[in-house]
Amino acid sequence: MKYTLATIDLYEYEYIRKSKWDLNTQSKYVDVERQCKSFKIFGTPEQVDEYLKDLKVDDVYQDKIEIKDSYYAGICFQYSKEHELYNPDSKLPTLEEYNTKLQERINRIEKIYIERGSKVLTQ
Questions:
Q1: What is the pLDDT of residues 27-52, one digit of tens each?
Q2: What is the rounded radius of gyration, in angstroms, for the C-alpha atoms of the chain?
Q3: Of 87, 56, 62, nearest to 73 (Cα)?
Q4: pTM score, two decimals?
């Protein structure tokens, strides 16, 4: 069965206080930043669509197995060795490591999903 694992950003915001350091005055100060509310969701595509239909969704980032030199190369995982931007000193995982870790995570969540009666999981 095909499942969807995604991060959902909503058109709802919360304000959080953050301590920052000012280099000019060499002092700490507190700033307020606006951050959108977001959560992860797991289920079948139909379940996810049904769950989200009444929410004000801003963006959906779907976690999926990536292919060689996709958009996320250099962001989530290394470029392939043949690519001109390949960096052997990069601390990013290789594509294979990235996909293996993601697949293990999806399998672990799928097991919980089945144990809980195949109901949508959110975090």
A1: 999 999 998 889 999 999 999 999 98
A2: 19
A3: 87
A4: 0.72
